[in-house]
């Protein structure tokens, strides 16, 4: 859990496997290591940073701000692109292979979507990919596919074929797009997850049959899952075949008709074609959550690792997938000893912090404390095995409490006298 109050109001987050890049409301960008220590600081603007983008190598960064500044530069060279626009630039995205590519492509979004690339004369060339449907509010670039959201819906552009593939219309049109922004996330090179308002859609980009092409794009999009959620979506991330969802929660008070803001929720859900199944749910404690809106939260994830970063204006929460040891901890905390013992026996090769016999002993102690001496005695044979010292201790304990008569499960080779 990172506490980052001293950085000022947080606006954007981007990450690689080795560091985080954070933007603030006052135009600063900080680089932090995974432990939360500041390693570099950049003064970009005097107003809020809208978005930060890193390429896959983590060597180049793109930054845009509310006053129309766009900077794309190498973290180790500072050479790159610097431009001021006459309108706020809301989003920026670098080509995933920006460092290795000769063309150095990136896109920006304000009132239009612009593609920048270097030509053979080492000059920057600009192309308008889309305009006329309001502000661009989100961009995600994966391989050759660029997905973006505006006031109307979500589009996908294939930069390889220079074709726009699809238009996924926005649901919840009654919600203001600036207050309930779209969340975009690529699960892989062809699967895009779209969250907007309280709706989620999973879109898969597929190759079109050559006989069906005519004047159509070579690819098309199939929506394989579409469903409504209980709360408003602030962020999405893939977790194997499941989804991690960050929810902004409004609830009705028992004593008042008006709504109030509750703590944000981090859920794991299993998408189905027309609905979803909740796997787990956790309410997050972040400072001043009562004052936050849906747009104030973001969710980022580190690919290849089950690490998830929840950003709020004053805090960053780092969440990681529970392993079997964590699951056993939870079962023991809830005094579900039998389930904990079973889980440890099944996963004894993978658990690192727990020991099957120690869990079994805790279960026996729990049964004795409850007065369930018969069950405790039956568990001794399985848990104690051929450990002479443990058997002697248990026989002595049962004798002391006057329950040695039920110790019928003691091994024949043990002298109980």
UniProtKB/TrEMBL annotation:
InterPro entries: Beta-prop_Vps41, Vps41/Vps8, WD40/YVTN_repeat-like_dom_sf, WD40_repeat_dom_sf. Coiled coil: none annotated. Signal peptide: none annotated. GO terms for cellular component: HOPS complex; late endosome. Residues 16-321 form the Vps41 beta-propeller domain. GO terms for biological process: cellular response to starvation; endosomal vesicle fusion; macroautophagy; protein targeting to vacuole. This is VPS41 subunit of HOPS complex. It comes from Sander lucioperca (Pike-perch). The lineage of its organism: Eukaryota, Metazoa, Chordata, Craniata, Vertebrata.
């Amino acid at each position: 859990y990172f506490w980052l109050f001293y950085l000022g109001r947080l606006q954007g987050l981007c990450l690689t496997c080795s560091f985080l890049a954070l933007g603030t409301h006052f135009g600063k960008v900080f680089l932090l290591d995974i432990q939360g220590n500041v390693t570099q600081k950049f003064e970009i603007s005097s107003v809020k940073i809208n978005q930060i983008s890193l390429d896959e190598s983590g060597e180049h960064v793109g930054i845009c701000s509310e006053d129309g500044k766009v900077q794309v530069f190498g973290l180790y060279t500072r050479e790159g692109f610097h431009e001021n626009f006459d309108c706020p630039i809301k989003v920026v995205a670098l080509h995933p292979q920006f460092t290795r590519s000769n063309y150095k492509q990136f896109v920006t979004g304000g009132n239009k979507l612009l593609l920048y690339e270097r030509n053979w004369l080492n000059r920057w060339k600009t192309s308008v990919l889309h305009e006329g449907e309001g502000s661009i509010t989100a961009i995600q670039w994966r391989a050759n596919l660029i997905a973006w959201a505006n006031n109307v819906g979500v589009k996908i552009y294939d930069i390889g074929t220079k074709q726009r593939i699809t238009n996924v219309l926005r649901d919840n049109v009654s919600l203001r797009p600036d207050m309930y922004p779209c969340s975009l996330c690529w699960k892989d090179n062809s699967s895009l997850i779209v969250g907007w308002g309280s709706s989620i859609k999973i879109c898969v980009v597929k190759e079109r049959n050559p006989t069906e092409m005519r004047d159509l794009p070579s690819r098309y999009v199939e929506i394989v899952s579409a469903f409504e959620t209980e709360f408003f979506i602030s962020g999405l991330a893939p977790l194997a075949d499941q989804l991690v969802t960050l929810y902004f929660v409004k609830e009705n008070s028992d004593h008042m008709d008006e709504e109030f803001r509750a703590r944000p929720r981090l859920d794991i859900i299993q998408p189905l074609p027309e609905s979803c199944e909740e796997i787990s749910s956790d309410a997050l404690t972040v400072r001043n959550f009562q004052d936050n809106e849906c747009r104030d939260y973001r969710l980022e994830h580190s690919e290849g690792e089950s690490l998830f970063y929840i950003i709020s204006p004053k805090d960053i929460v780092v969440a990681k997938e529970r392993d079997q040891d964590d699951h056993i901890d939870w079962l023991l905390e809830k005094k579900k000893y039998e389930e904990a013992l079973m889980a440890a026996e099944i996963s004894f090769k993978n658990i690192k912090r727990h020991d099957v016999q120690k869990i079994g002993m805790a279960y026996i102690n729990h049964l004795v404390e409850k007065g369930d001496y018969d069950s405790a005695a039956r568990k001794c044979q399985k848990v104690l095995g051929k450990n002479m010292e443990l058997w002697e201790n248990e026989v002595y304990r049962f004798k002391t409490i006057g329950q040695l008569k039920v110790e019928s499960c003691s091994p024949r080779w043990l002298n109980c006298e």
